[in-house]
Structures are given as structure tokens and as C-alpha cells.
Amino acid sequence: MFDVDAVRADFPILSRQVNNRPLVYLDNAASAQKPQVVIDAVSNAYSGEYANVHRGLHYLSNLATTNYERVRAIIARFLHAPHEDEVIFTSGGTEGINLVSYGWAAPRLQAGDQIVLSVLEHHANIVPWHFLRERQGVELVWVEPEADGSLPPEKMLAAVGPKTRLIAVSHMSNVTGTIVDVGAIAQGARALGVPVLADGSQAAVHMPVDVGALGVDFYAITGHKLYGPSGSGAVWISRARQAEMRPFMGGGDMIDTVTRDKITYAAPPLRFEAGTPGIVNQIGLGVALEYLMGLGMDKIAAHERGLRDYARARLRELNWLNVQGDAPDKGGIFSMTMEGAHAHDLSTILDKRGIAIRAGTHCAMPLMEFYGVTASARASFAMYNTPAEVDALIDGLIFCRELFG
């Protein structure tokens, strides 16, 4: 049984008020709040255990290194990765995707080669590929979703041609909540000899993820959406693809030897982790993932499906509200527009009622263009949200409607 009240009690910020109203935090697709165990872990790492990692033989350095490196195994367990050395620490999903772009794609792709993308993508899974388009003449092949926001795997695979070198696709849209069947895409792509990168920044927090079962080659996650600290994250890269990569950044830790005439690189994953890392951030992420696994990702997913279904039913009552994308298989993310009111107006008015949502393009301008809107208001749910908070959102939207006539 998933006890949402007990979970809420673990998050101190949820008990505060905003504008003299109880906080209703519905901006989770942007960043999730932090449980006390993560806050305590970060505080303790700085106050009682801090030192640099990998470089010292003294007690604190050894302790910090142990606590930091154990997170690699935690992430591997969370993603059901075959080997923990396939987990590369990053500052988040953006760095993870850029690592693949610079380290794997840039040395291998040339003018005329193609990357298949969906219009659902976050800018973090668009801009790095535009760099290759600008600098190396790589072509981007775009696949549009269906009107309801769904993205059939066969549609992605139909875009694959003889010059396709990579498919890059979100596991879950940060705008519509669409869940993409990346397993089916990866299975079809493997038969065609095309690697697949999945952006798991949204999906990993809402559902169990098994990278081995999915069959992808690269899978990026970001810690701040996983109830961990900002500046934490990882990208899972199979050993076979790591062997094809060159280092992304140069500096300490990623080398074996350095002389005036040559360098040799450390073995992966350190080869792709230059410089002093976000030690405490990653320690906090490890605690957050253990917290999630302790609750059970299946139970979290079931609770959030209930929220999604309730929110979808309530939003459908508002026939003057336009929801962008309502795929059958989606997470609890709803982007919406209302005629006569800008998305920023909706967000501002709801904020006065203590309800936090996001307004804008959500780093997904191609998808905004697809839906013919310049901005939308987005409410995104997490494991600590409740049906009562769905009702508060609906009441707030009705209030907005009344204000704008």
C-alpha cells in the first residue's frame, strides 16, 4: 500500500504556505522537492564527511570516495543496468546527452549522416544534435507525434534510412506526459543496426526502468527530478558503446598518465568524468534513489496513474480548456491553454492561490509549434500529490475562467 500522507510528511517544504494558502506544488516536471533524508545526507556530507575523492589517502578522502562511488552501484540497481561501470556520473540529463553527442556521435558522424528525432523532445535532446548539424553537416530527420501526442514506434522506425546513425527519443514527454515505447523502437532499430539514445529525465522518476530490457544503447537521467540535488545525474552507456567513445572533457581523474608528449586515459567510467565532480550532489542522489526504491517504483507508478486518471477526468469537465496532447499512455503531466488568457496569466493567478505550475514553452519549442501555441500552462504531478490537490487546481482554473469571462 502506498501511503501518500506518510510520504508527504517526509518533505518539509510541503507543509509551508504560499500567499497565505497551503502550497500545492504542481511543477514537478521542472524539478521535484526533496525529502528530509536527502537534505540530511547533503548537510552531513558537508558538515562531517567532506573531502575530495579519488586523490587522497587520508581518512576523510577515503570516506568521501566510498560514499560517492557507492552511488554508481545504486544507480545501476535503479536502472537495472548489467554493470555498474556502465554508469557515468553527470550534472544531469543535459550533460549526459551532450557527452554522447561529443564523445560518441561527433567522431563517428559526417556530412549527410542522419539522426532521427521526435518533435516531442526537450531542447536538451535537440540542441546537441543541432551542433552536429551546424558543425559537421549532419542531417536531422523529424518525426511528428499523433494529434493526441502519442508516438507510435513504427512511425519512428519508418524514418530510418540507409544514412541513419542514431535515434534520439524521450522516454516521456515533459510537455504532454506521453510515454514512448522506447523498447519497441530499440528492438526495431537493432534489427536495422541503428543505436538508440533515450532521454529518461522525465520517465525514470515515474516508472520502473530496466535499460537491459529496453535494449537501448544510452539512457540519461537527471537527479533533481528524482528528488535528489540539482547538479546530479548520470548517463547509462553500454560497454560496447563506451568502447567506441572518445573523452568529452579533459582534466584530472580521467587520465592514467600524462607526460609532455602524450597521455593515456583511465578506464571507463572515469575516462568520461573529468575534474572534481559534484561529490555531495551525487551522494544526495544515491540517498534519493534508495528512498524511491524503498517505497517501490511499482507502487509509486500506480499511485501516479490514479492521479493522472483523476486529473484527466476533471480537466475534461472544463470544455473551455484546451489540453495539448492526451495520449492513452501518459504520465501525470498536463499542458493547457485557455482562450483569452495567456499561460503566464494562468500561472500568476494560480500562484496567488498557493498553486505552483509552470508557464512557457517548457524547453520544447518544436512541440509548441506543432500544437500551434506560443506557450502553455503545465501542471505536473509527483508521488506526493493528492486528489485534493487536483481539485484545488480545477477550482483555480475555474476561478481564472471567471476572471477572464
Automatic annotation (TrEMBL):
Transferase recorded as keyword:
yes
Output the Pfam families linked to this UniProt entry.
Aminotran_5
Against InterPro entries, the record matches this protein to: Aminotrans_V_dom, Aminotrans_V_PyrdxlP_BS, Cys_dSase_SufS, Cysteine_dSase, PyrdxlP-dep_Trfase, PyrdxlP-dep_Trfase_major, PyrdxlP-dep_Trfase_small
Task: Give the family this protein belongs to, as stated in its UniProt record.
Answer: Belongs to the class-V pyridoxal-phosphate-dependent aminotransferase family. Csd subfamily.
Instruction: Show where the Aminotransferase class V domain sits.
Output: 24-393
Could you name the domain of life of the organism this protein comes from? Answer: Bacteria
Reaction catalyzed: (sulfur carrier)-H + L-cysteine = (sulfur carrier)-SH + L-alanine
The role this protein plays is:
Catalyzes the removal of elemental sulfur atoms from cysteine to produce alanine. Seems to participate in the biosynthesis of the nitrogenase metalloclusters by providing the inorganic sulfur required for the Fe-S core formation. Catalyzes the removal of elemental sulfur and selenium atoms from L-cysteine, L-cystine, L-selenocysteine, and L-selenocystine to produce L-alanine.
Co-factor requirement: pyridoxal 5'-phosphate
What are this entry's molecular-function GO terms?
cysteine desulfurase activity
**EC number(s) from the headed UniProt entry:** 2.8.1.7
The residue range of the signal peptide is none
Keyword set includes Transferase: yes
Provide this UniProt record's keywords sorted from A to Z: Pyridoxal phosphate, Transferase
- Full protein name: Cysteine desulfurase
What is the protein's species of origin? Paracoccus pacificus
